[in-house]
Records
---
Amino acid sequence: MYDTLPPDLPQLRTLRTWHAMWVTRLDQAIAAAEAREAEKRRGEQARPPAPEWMIEHGIGQGRPPAEVHQGGCHMAGHRVRPVTRDQARQALGAGIRACAHCRPDTELGLLE
């Protein structure tokens, strides 16, 4: 059914032009998709590692520390700053709440 082609030269050339146009468009789309994937890989490789420990700050005047999280905790909000292990331990010792989801107090050996 699809193996028959028109017999005359003008129609064959028209079909050839049409398909060449589509091959060019497909090549451009493939090149754009490959460029997006390469950029995504470069971004992932250049991304700094997640901090090991974070302190989430509250809202309001002075933004006091509110909660300690392990790095990568899904419950950490947007108002976080990275801290060292010792700073996280000191914050927990000073009475700052430990996240109930990632349990940094357990990981640091400071059970409540």
---
Amino acid sequence: MNDLEFQKLEQMAKDSGMSVPTFCKKKAQGARMSSPKIDREGAFEIARQLRAIGNNVNQLSKRANEGKAIPSEELQDVQKELHALWQQFNLAIQK
């Protein structure tokens, strides 16, 4: 294998989120390989936003369990954040 071929192999493995040996093993076993629809940075950003929303939901749940009222505006804000994140996710997977 020459350098150019190995670079192409490295890129295909990277695009699949695998090491070169793992990628080669999967290909040799006949696995169907496809590139992820969301890049690594995009996945990390979506995960970060989900954690932030999860923290907000946990805080609201704690207040509710303490018998405190939760303003509907706060619930609507969380719903809007989830909807915006869902839209972002859908756009990312359609690329």
